[in-house]
Amino acid sequence: MIPAQFEYVRAGSAEEAISLIGEHGEDAKMIAGGHSLLPLMKLRLAQPSVLIDIGRLTDLSYIRDAGDHIAIGALTRHMDVEKSPVLAEHVPLLAHAASHVGDPQVRHRGTIGGSIAHSDPASDLPATTLALGATYVAQGPNGTREIAAKDFHQGFLTSALSADELLTEIRVPKMQGAGWGFQKFNRRAQDWAIVGVSAWKRNGESGIGLVNMGSVPILASSVSSALAGGASAAEAAEAAAAEAEPQADLNATPEYRTHLAKVLVRRALEQAGA
Amino acid sequence: MQISLTVNGTVHESDVEPRTLLVHHIRDALGLTGTNVGCDTSSCGACSVHLDGEAVKSCTLLAVQADGSTITTIEGLATNGEMHPMQKAFMENHALQCGFCTPGMVMAATSFLIENPNPSEREVRIGLEGNLCRCTGYHNIVQAVLACAGATSGAAK
Question: Which CATH class is domain B2-76?
Answer without folding.
Answer: alpha beta
